[in-house]
From TrEMBL:
InterPro entries: OxRdtase_Mopterin-bd_dom, OxRdtase_Mopterin-bd_sf
Organism: Mucilaginibacter gilvus
Protein name: Molybdopterin-binding oxidoreductase
Domain Oxidoreductase molybdopterin-binding intervals: 107-248
Keyword tags: Membrane, Transmembrane, Transmembrane helix
Segments crossing the lipid bilayer: 21-39
Superkingdom, taxonomy of origin: Bacteria
Pfam families: Oxidored_molyb
Amino acid sequence: MENKKQPKKELTIDQKINRRNFISFGVFGVMGVAAYKGWRWLYTAPKEVAGVTASAKAPLRRALNQTELAMRNFFSNNHLVRTYPKSMAAKNVRHNSDIGVKGGFVIEDWKLQVIKHTGEILTFTIDQIKALPKTEIVYDFKCVEGWDQIQYWGGLKMIDFIEHFGLAEETKLAYVGMMTPDKAYQVGLDMPSAVHPQTILAYEMNGKPIPMNHGAPLRLIIPVKYGIKNLKRIGSITFSNTRPPDYWARSGYDYYSGL
Ligand SMILES: Nc1nc2c(c(=O)[nH]1)N[C@H]1C(S)=C(S)[C@@H](COP(=O)(O)O)O[C@H]1N2
Ligand SMILES: [Mo]
């Protein structure tokens, strides 16, 4: 077959330079427009549901949520937090902030409220919770402010509570929310962490009823999370597919706050 290819026309030096300039300016132009459009897209993007995650723009939030998902899949599936012998637990348990755990609270009047996704409200007494098998854990409690301490807690596993009181349907939802009785402090939890085998509704600290300033009569101990998520004095528990309010996430802390 005859070769039909024309010999390539040689370009002069000037022509080569012009051509190169044309290409590079073109590329810069396209990049510039793309960058501007990207910025506009981010800038004009709607905020995430107001108040829940400190107003991060939705696309950024989506990126953060993706990392969160990867972390969850990596860590959650029954990956257990390290535990220690009781002898290593602190006798003087550190005490931190007290939002929603202040005076004017009558422990005898306390009841736990559970709000199902259907809106149905159930109430439980501390005796109903104590009547079920107790689980104890000694682990390293970590506060985001930079301290940690090996502590010894006892109570009812969240998953046992859910199963025993017929709440299994609720675990199909994405989130669990908890609040103090006065609603002043709230935490939102992803379902896998809430039903993690080491997550407990604690009523004992060092083998005795939890003192008032540590969240009597019932607090959350969730070893897969930082201290901020370990709500003291649980007043209510809700189940939902939208993120429940969260005291610290609202002021910019990571919503997931996992370890
Ligand atoms: N109700 C309520 N729960 C709370 C807090 C709070 O201020 N109020 N602080 C959280 C933080 S930041 C930490 S580190 C732990 C501290 O618990 P402790 O006081 O038992 O050490 O409780 C968490 N749960
Ligand atoms: Mo904390």
